[in-house]
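Hello,

Our lab assistant flagged a job as stuck in the queue for most of the afternoon. It eventually completed. Since we weren't sure the result was trustworthy after the delay, we are filing this so someone can double-check. Below is the sequence as submitted and the structure that was eventually returned. Let us know if re-running is recommended.
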Amino acid sequence: MQVYLRHVHLEIAVDAPDHPTAWRLLDTLRAVLYSRGLKPTVAPFATSYSLNAYAGINSRGSETLRAKLPDGLRDGIQAKETKVQAWPTELFLTCHRGGPDLTEMITPEDFLSAVEACAIWQRIEDKHSAARVIRNALVKAPLMPDLSSSILHMWQALENLFGISSEITYRVSLLLAELCVPVAPRSTTYTTAKASYGDRSKIAHGSNSPVVDAQWQRAWGLLQNVSKAILHRGSIPSANDLTDELLNR
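-- returned structure --
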């Protein structure tokens, strides 16, 4: 914990009955925020008390050590009377942060909007297991040091949406283009999906071509738009529904 505590920039409080539930809620919030353009980051551990509460906990029980603490840390919980639990979660030292179009800043209004969107996403997950896979890809793909593995992980989630086994490049790209209509032009999504699926195929088939950050960003941008489109629609349409939607326009 000491390695990460020196670099903490944000602490998020989650009200939940247990750690697994809290972690799922935090993952959902991060996925929503990432889909809206926030740079991916690391959440290395969770604790039962705020950092602001347990900072200085080992010194407050001693009058000598307590006197050496800053004024704001001298009063609070003490080790002899309080049990602080901690759970390691993402013990990584690297994270793909994406391109210059992503941001490290978020307004209070945008944060509250993302919190509200989490409730919608959880309802979608309850109906569509594929939404859980998309969420997992959004949160975990940036933490994979190897670009190739990260791209494959994202495409595993995207392909899982439709369960297509033939003419994959064309059909998946077309369906993703229709799925993302609420958030992006069809032609843009189709072109991006087709190019990114080409990246995925080269990696999966052992191409010797080096994988570059631009390819990762292409898959990431596609995953972002898919997540936004799912939230906008409030569900995940089937391949047949999207085909009908496309033909009836």
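-- support follow-up --
The delay was a queue issue, not a problem with the job. The result is valid. The first strand starts at residue 45 and ends at 47. The chain has eleven helices and two strands.
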